[in-house]
Amino acid sequence: MRYFPINLDIRDKPVVLVGGGAVAARKCLALLAAGARVTVIAPELDQGLGELRTQGEIRHLARQFAPGDLAGAFLALAVTDSAEVNAAVAGEASARGILADIADAPELGAFTLPALLRRGDLLIAVSTGGKSPALARRIRRELEERYGPEYGTAVMLLGKLREKLLTEKGNSAYNKELFNELVDHDLPALIRNHSTAEIDHLLTKIFGPGFTLSGLGVAEKDTE
To answer: pTM for this one?
Structure first.
């Protein structure tokens, strides 16, 4: 295994994205979804990136990459059709100790972006170590059929349960047993089938009085 999988907090962190095409746009959306402050360096932008610029979602430097452009960056990504430019980004990132993703030459960078499936706070990543992004995307599409939006709702509900349990009961070892019991009842399936009454009954049975959807601050529409 060449790469070490890690969840990286990039909220409000400066990220430099070099390239203005469709692939750059796709990576930019993932960065923005994670809360990064993105600067795009490219003479021209594709339609998607252009709309993000118009909406004020990104900062755009309408020119080629130049030495010094990575100063202060937390991450760097090079997604251009020029091997020379991508290599220059990799070289500056390495010199500055900045993690970089180099699209056409992953061996020059420190990380790669996997194919992602996002369901709320549930994130499923698929990686082939840079050897076959196409296969990673295919596997992600297969996972999309298996893990629907109900899984995002389940994660949200479990998070609220965890917060309430820690506040009111505090026994983490005991709480783990309760969560395992709830997960064994296939909570996502109950959400998918809109079985709100059954969910309320299950929560009360496992966790006690006060543990219902309304008691957790979850509106019925949030489980639809």
So the answer is: 0.82
